[in-house]
Design brief:
Length: 147
Amino acid sequence: MFKLLPLLIGILFLYSCTVPADKDTIEKHKAEILSTEKQFEQTVKEKGISFGFYSYADDNAVIKAKDTLIRGRLAIKKYYDGRTLKNEKLEWTPDFVDVSSSGDLGYTYGRYTFSATDSAGKEINSKGIFHTVWKKQKDGTWKFVWD
């Protein structure tokens, strides 16, 4: 019996980590993610894309850049720092937010617009749909793990 006690304690611990959050807690997490998403966009507007993505990325975040995956917070910053575009402007609006029942993962999606000037002076404009996956950090903040 005593040999099984550590196993039972471990199972109870794991179960307690995955107990679904109540509806009010889920709504609170959704509001936190939405607020974080808006702060993220504001940081991008005020301090640039590279700083914004670096600031809101989890250490193991991944972004899709054309047909390539950029893995890791530092690699994401290096990718954006290396771009030669001028007057970059990125704006987005989440249309939807949801959170896992455990309250530690969430996602948003919505519309974005991007504009910039390339090295030849040509205007670049694009718009589309974004999808971001958010992970709650140990300190209670949210960082993206996929964008």
